[in-house]
Design brief:
This protein has about 120 residues and is an all-alpha fold. It has helices spanning about 10-15, 20-35, 45-60, 65-85, 85-90, 95-115.
């Protein structure tokens, strides 16, 4: 798939200014966006970009998170990478797209709960 050129340095600097709970909330929001955008077949590039960005958010944040949160984040990151490998097949298959939407929604809720922002 096509990757949009992004200035990851600027994105990282901005992202890392936020406290850990807010960064986890940002990751949860991205995963929620993957869920909602996956319903629209025309959102392929948007979802691909959100997957890339989510992987980066995890890369930058996992080391500072509690061990259980970090473990979940690493599992999510691995799965996102596996999705990228199979992206052509996933995106053109409505049931696969539905599956990634459902999984993204589950992760979003889990990470949002772990962030402490809901308390």
């Amino acid at each position: 798939y096509l990757q949009m050129i992004k200035d990851w340095t600027a994105i990282r600097e901005r992202f890392m200014k936020d406290p850990l709970p807010v960064r986890l909330g940002g990751l949860a929001a991205n995963l929620s966006r993957i869920k909602s955008f996956s319903a629209n077949e025309n959102s392929r590039e948007t979802v691909a970009s959100l997957i890339d960005e989510s992987k980066m958010f995890i890369e930058w944040t996992a080391a500072q998170a509690e061990i259980n949160t970090a473990a979940l984040m690493v599992d999510v990151q691995i799965q996102l990478a596996l999705w990228q490998i199979r992206w052509e097949h996933i995106w053109t298959n409505p049931s696969e797209r539905k599956r990634i939407a459902e999984q993204s929604g589950i992760w979003s809720k889990q990470i949002l709960e772990l962030s402490g922002l809901l308390k």
